[in-house]
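seq as requested:
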Amino acid sequence: MIAARWNKWKLFRICLVILFLIFFMQQVTNYLSYDARGPSAFIVEALQRWGLEAEFTQMILWYVVQIAFTYLLLKGIFRKPLTELGFNLRSFTSSLRFIFAFIILYPILYMGIGKLLIDMGANGFTAGLGTVSRLYLIKEFMCYGLLPGTGEEPFFRVFVIQLLFLAFGNGDHHEPVERKTKGVLILLSSIFFSIGHIFISWAPFSLHYDPLQLALAFGLGIIYSIMYLRTKSILAPVVCHNFSDLFYRLAIRFIL
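C-alpha coordinates:
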Protein backbone atom coordinates (compact mmCIF):
# COMPACT_ATOMS: atom_id res chain seq x y z
CA MET A 1 0.00 0.00 0.00
CA ILE A 2 1.24 3.50 -0.87
CA ALA A 3 1.44 5.17 2.52
CA ALA A 4 0.88 8.76 3.46
CA ARG A 5 4.66 9.15 3.99
CA TRP A 6 5.94 11.18 1.12
CA ASN A 7 8.95 13.23 0.14
CA LYS A 8 7.79 16.81 0.60
CA TRP A 9 10.75 18.32 -1.23
CA LYS A 10 10.22 15.99 -4.17
CA LEU A 11 6.51 16.81 -4.16
CA PHE A 12 7.33 20.54 -4.17
CA ARG A 13 9.63 20.14 -7.17
CA ILE A 14 7.03 18.08 -9.01
CA CYS A 15 4.41 20.76 -8.37
CA LEU A 16 6.74 23.39 -9.82
CA VAL A 17 7.26 21.23 -12.91
CA ILE A 18 3.50 20.81 -13.34
CA LEU A 19 2.93 24.57 -13.02
CA PHE A 20 5.58 25.25 -15.64
CA LEU A 21 4.13 22.65 -18.00
CA ILE A 22 0.59 24.00 -17.60
CA PHE A 23 1.53 27.51 -18.68
CA PHE A 24 4.10 26.38 -21.24
CA MET A 25 1.53 24.11 -22.88
CA GLN A 26 -1.01 26.91 -22.71
CA GLN A 27 1.25 29.34 -24.57
CA VAL A 28 2.34 26.81 -27.19
CA THR A 29 -1.20 25.59 -27.75
CA ASN A 30 -2.52 29.13 -28.04
CA TYR A 31 0.17 30.03 -30.59
CA LEU A 32 -0.68 26.97 -32.68
CA SER A 33 -4.44 27.48 -32.56
CA TYR A 34 -5.78 30.93 -31.64
CA ASP A 35 -2.85 33.24 -32.39
CA ALA A 36 -3.37 34.92 -35.76
CA ARG A 37 0.43 35.15 -36.10
CA GLY A 38 0.80 31.40 -35.76
CA PRO A 39 0.64 28.65 -38.39
CA SER A 40 -3.06 28.04 -37.76
CA ALA A 41 -4.11 31.17 -39.64
CA PHE A 42 -3.90 29.34 -42.98
CA ILE A 43 -5.95 26.40 -41.72
CA VAL A 44 -8.58 28.68 -40.20
CA GLU A 45 -8.93 30.68 -43.41
CA ALA A 46 -9.11 27.54 -45.54
CA LEU A 47 -11.82 25.91 -43.42
CA GLN A 48 -13.83 29.13 -43.32
CA ARG A 49 -14.26 28.77 -47.07
CA TRP A 50 -15.84 25.37 -46.38
CA GLY A 51 -18.27 26.83 -43.85
CA LEU A 52 -16.50 26.10 -40.55
CA GLU A 53 -16.36 29.20 -38.39
CA ALA A 54 -12.97 30.33 -37.12
CA GLU A 55 -13.86 29.79 -33.45
CA PHE A 56 -14.61 26.12 -34.04
CA THR A 57 -11.47 25.50 -36.10
CA GLN A 58 -9.38 27.18 -33.40
CA MET A 59 -11.09 25.16 -30.68
CA ILE A 60 -10.44 21.90 -32.54
CA LEU A 61 -6.78 22.84 -33.10
CA TRP A 62 -6.40 23.80 -29.42
CA TYR A 63 -7.45 20.38 -28.20
CA VAL A 64 -5.59 18.47 -30.93
CA VAL A 65 -2.35 20.22 -29.94
CA GLN A 66 -3.09 19.64 -26.24
CA ILE A 67 -3.66 15.92 -26.84
CA ALA A 68 -0.42 15.65 -28.84
CA PHE A 69 1.52 17.55 -26.14
CA THR A 70 0.15 15.28 -23.40
CA TYR A 71 0.88 12.14 -25.42
CA LEU A 72 4.53 13.16 -25.79
CA LEU A 73 4.77 13.83 -22.04
CA LEU A 74 3.21 10.49 -21.11
CA LYS A 75 5.38 8.48 -23.48
CA GLY A 76 8.53 10.44 -22.68
CA ILE A 77 8.30 10.44 -18.88
CA PHE A 78 6.50 7.25 -17.88
CA ARG A 79 7.43 4.93 -20.73
CA LYS A 80 4.52 2.64 -19.88
CA PRO A 81 1.67 1.39 -22.05
CA LEU A 82 -1.12 3.94 -22.10
CA THR A 83 -3.51 1.25 -20.89
CA GLU A 84 -1.58 1.08 -17.61
CA LEU A 85 -1.96 4.84 -17.17
CA GLY A 86 -5.73 4.89 -17.53
CA PHE A 87 -6.54 4.67 -21.23
CA ASN A 88 -8.56 1.50 -20.80
CA LEU A 89 -12.04 0.17 -20.05
CA ARG A 90 -11.21 -1.37 -16.68
CA SER A 91 -13.96 -1.13 -14.09
CA PHE A 92 -16.34 -0.41 -16.95
CA THR A 93 -19.41 -0.98 -14.79
CA SER A 94 -18.12 1.40 -12.11
CA SER A 95 -17.37 3.99 -14.78
CA LEU A 96 -20.93 3.73 -16.08
CA ARG A 97 -22.30 4.20 -12.56
CA PHE A 98 -20.24 7.36 -12.15
CA ILE A 99 -21.37 8.64 -15.55
CA PHE A 100 -25.07 8.01 -14.95
CA ALA A 101 -24.94 9.57 -11.49
CA PHE A 102 -23.13 12.63 -12.85
CA ILE A 103 -25.55 13.08 -15.75
CA ILE A 104 -28.46 13.05 -13.31
CA LEU A 105 -27.02 15.13 -10.46
CA TYR A 106 -24.84 17.70 -12.24
CA PRO A 107 -27.64 19.51 -14.13
CA ILE A 108 -29.64 19.80 -10.90
CA LEU A 109 -26.73 21.27 -8.96
CA TYR A 110 -25.62 23.51 -11.83
CA MET A 111 -29.08 24.93 -12.43
CA GLY A 112 -29.70 25.47 -8.73
CA ILE A 113 -26.40 27.26 -8.13
CA GLY A 114 -26.63 29.13 -11.43
CA LYS A 115 -30.11 30.42 -10.67
CA LEU A 116 -28.99 31.51 -7.20
CA LEU A 117 -25.99 33.39 -8.58
CA ILE A 118 -28.10 35.08 -11.27
CA ASP A 119 -30.59 36.19 -8.60
CA MET A 120 -27.63 37.60 -6.67
CA GLY A 121 -26.59 39.68 -9.69
CA ALA A 122 -24.06 37.47 -11.50
CA ASN A 123 -24.26 38.14 -15.24
CA GLY A 124 -21.38 36.11 -16.65
CA PHE A 125 -23.48 33.11 -17.66
CA THR A 126 -25.02 34.50 -20.82
CA ALA A 127 -22.77 37.48 -21.51
CA GLY A 128 -21.81 37.92 -25.14
CA LEU A 129 -24.33 35.45 -26.57
CA GLY A 130 -26.30 36.39 -29.64
CA THR A 131 -28.76 34.82 -32.03
CA VAL A 132 -27.21 32.14 -34.19
CA SER A 133 -28.38 29.64 -36.79
CA ARG A 134 -29.34 26.04 -36.07
CA LEU A 135 -26.30 24.83 -38.00
CA TYR A 136 -24.07 26.98 -35.81
CA LEU A 137 -25.67 25.50 -32.69
CA ILE A 138 -25.07 21.97 -33.97
CA LYS A 139 -21.39 22.73 -34.53
CA GLU A 140 -21.15 24.42 -31.14
CA PHE A 141 -22.75 21.54 -29.26
CA MET A 142 -20.64 18.97 -31.11
CA CYS A 143 -17.43 20.80 -30.20
CA TYR A 144 -18.36 21.31 -26.55
CA GLY A 145 -19.78 17.80 -26.26
CA LEU A 146 -16.75 16.00 -27.69
CA LEU A 147 -13.57 18.05 -27.24
CA PRO A 148 -13.01 19.52 -23.73
CA GLY A 149 -12.82 16.28 -21.75
CA THR A 150 -11.01 14.48 -24.56
CA GLY A 151 -8.38 17.22 -24.68
CA GLU A 152 -7.97 18.13 -21.00
CA GLU A 153 -8.46 14.92 -19.01
CA PRO A 154 -5.36 13.11 -20.34
CA PHE A 155 -3.20 15.94 -18.98
CA PHE A 156 -4.98 17.04 -15.79
CA ARG A 157 -6.09 13.61 -14.64
CA VAL A 158 -3.64 11.09 -16.09
CA PHE A 159 -0.40 13.03 -16.44
CA VAL A 160 -0.73 15.26 -13.37
CA ILE A 161 -1.85 12.50 -11.00
CA GLN A 162 0.70 10.01 -12.32
CA LEU A 163 3.47 12.58 -11.90
CA LEU A 164 2.31 13.36 -8.35
CA PHE A 165 2.41 9.62 -7.62
CA LEU A 166 6.19 9.80 -7.97
CA ALA A 167 6.40 11.66 -4.64
CA PHE A 168 4.60 8.83 -2.84
CA GLY A 169 6.15 5.49 -2.03
CA ASN A 170 7.71 3.97 -5.13
CA GLY A 171 5.29 5.69 -7.48
CA ASP A 172 3.51 2.50 -8.46
CA HIS A 173 -0.03 3.62 -9.26
CA HIS A 174 -1.24 -0.01 -9.22
CA GLU A 175 -0.70 -0.32 -5.47
CA PRO A 176 -3.60 0.51 -3.11
CA VAL A 177 -3.52 4.13 -1.97
CA GLU A 178 -4.15 5.22 1.60
CA ARG A 179 -7.00 7.67 2.13
CA LYS A 180 -4.74 10.54 3.21
CA THR A 181 -2.46 10.07 0.22
CA LYS A 182 -5.44 9.87 -2.12
CA GLY A 183 -6.81 13.07 -0.57
CA VAL A 184 -3.55 14.91 -1.29
CA LEU A 185 -3.55 13.67 -4.90
CA ILE A 186 -7.16 14.74 -5.42
CA LEU A 187 -6.63 18.15 -3.82
CA LEU A 188 -3.45 18.99 -5.73
CA SER A 189 -4.71 17.76 -9.11
CA SER A 190 -7.92 19.79 -8.64
CA ILE A 191 -5.92 22.91 -7.78
CA PHE A 192 -3.84 22.45 -10.92
CA PHE A 193 -7.02 21.93 -12.97
CA SER A 194 -8.35 25.23 -11.64
CA ILE A 195 -5.03 26.99 -12.32
CA GLY A 196 -5.19 25.66 -15.86
CA HIS A 197 -8.18 27.94 -16.42
CA ILE A 198 -6.06 31.05 -15.79
CA PHE A 199 -4.63 32.51 -18.99
CA ILE A 200 -1.45 34.58 -19.00
CA SER A 201 -0.81 37.43 -21.43
CA TRP A 202 2.77 38.67 -21.63
CA ALA A 203 2.59 41.98 -23.53
CA PRO A 204 1.68 43.57 -21.21
CA PHE A 205 1.67 40.95 -18.46
CA SER A 206 -1.82 40.19 -17.19
CA LEU A 207 -3.88 37.32 -15.84
CA HIS A 208 -7.28 36.52 -17.33
CA TYR A 209 -9.70 34.43 -15.32
CA ASP A 210 -13.28 34.10 -14.12
CA PRO A 211 -13.57 33.41 -10.36
CA LEU A 212 -16.75 31.39 -10.90
CA GLN A 213 -15.05 29.27 -13.54
CA LEU A 214 -12.06 28.67 -11.25
CA ALA A 215 -14.35 27.55 -8.42
CA LEU A 216 -16.33 25.28 -10.75
CA ALA A 217 -13.14 23.81 -12.21
CA PHE A 218 -11.83 23.04 -8.71
CA GLY A 219 -15.06 21.31 -7.69
CA LEU A 220 -15.30 19.31 -10.90
CA GLY A 221 -11.59 18.48 -10.66
CA ILE A 222 -12.26 16.77 -7.34
CA ILE A 223 -15.06 14.70 -8.87
CA TYR A 224 -13.06 13.73 -11.97
CA SER A 225 -10.01 12.81 -9.87
CA ILE A 226 -12.11 10.57 -7.63
CA MET A 227 -13.51 8.86 -10.73
CA TYR A 228 -10.06 8.30 -12.16
CA LEU A 229 -8.56 6.94 -8.95
CA ARG A 230 -11.53 4.71 -8.20
CA THR A 231 -11.81 3.18 -11.67
CA LYS A 232 -8.16 3.46 -12.81
CA SER A 233 -9.64 4.53 -16.13
CA ILE A 234 -10.07 7.88 -17.84
CA LEU A 235 -13.42 6.90 -19.36
CA ALA A 236 -15.72 8.42 -16.73
CA PRO A 237 -13.74 11.69 -16.35
CA VAL A 238 -13.69 12.24 -20.12
CA VAL A 239 -17.39 11.54 -20.62
CA CYS A 240 -18.47 13.59 -17.59
CA HIS A 241 -16.17 16.49 -18.50
CA ASN A 242 -17.59 16.59 -22.02
CA PHE A 243 -21.12 16.43 -20.62
CA SER A 244 -20.50 19.28 -18.16
CA ASP A 245 -19.25 21.57 -20.92
CA LEU A 246 -22.08 20.57 -23.25
CA PHE A 247 -24.65 21.19 -20.54
CA TYR A 248 -23.09 24.57 -19.84
CA ARG A 249 -23.65 25.62 -23.46
CA LEU A 250 -27.17 24.19 -23.48
CA ALA A 251 -28.00 25.99 -20.24
CA ILE A 252 -26.80 29.42 -21.28
CA ARG A 253 -28.44 29.09 -24.70
CA PHE A 254 -31.85 27.83 -23.68
CA ILE A 255 -32.37 27.75 -19.92
CA LEU A 256 -30.60 30.41 -17.84
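The CA atoms of residues 45 and 54 lie 7 Å apart.
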